[in-house]
């Protein structure tokens, strides 16, 4: 038994030396490190299994009671020593964790975080202010409802697509038997404005706060006809004059705007909304309440 113990102990020491050599071969290679760890685990498992088998064979070949008792004691000692050695090997085979260099702060990330925090603070501030603000849409809607009730009118919704003025007048004209699309009315407005430069140019200013030049005015008329440029009171005036229809614009918080009052045709009614729609200013058509 002593001979067996000595040989097994020597084998454990030899395995320890081989393990140290394997560790040195890693040299910072992550893939190699994983392979070495697996190889070490296999070596430890193999030697433990083999030592146990050798002990079992030794016991089987020594069947006397005294030998069995003596060998049982030796078995415990061998097992304890082998297990201690294996545990020690496992501990010593743990690869040292390399100390990571302290990373420098990511300035771009810090800037983004500060910006996000600032935006969040502004959002919360805006929400607090909104709680104390008057709901202008609700106020406008309530004022509209009272005015329309007095006039016996109600709103016919028009799509908010940049053509709402022309579409609302188009709907009004359809009620009196006139068929004009919003594109037709854009062309009517643009042509009338082109031919009556002196009537409209004093009311148009460029980005510098100066009156339009004639070239700028002509470009504006082209935009009226060919783009989704928002229409307003000037374009309403042009359509009224060109088609000889009186047009009344109902507003929630102001008196109605009467255009083309000198014409005898049936009056057209549209509404002007400042706060009721998400895209901003908007026009709807007004019809008699049923």
From TrEMBL:
Residues 61-77 have a biased composition (Low complexity). Residues 5-53 form a coiled coil. Keywords: Coiled coil. Residues 60-113 are annotated as: Disordered. Residues 153-289 form the OTU domain. This is Cysteine proteinase. The keyword Protein biosynthesis does not apply. The lineage of its organism: Eukaryota, Fungi, Fungi incertae sedis, Chytridiomycota, Chytridiomycota incertae sedis. Gene3D superfamilies: 3.90.70.80.
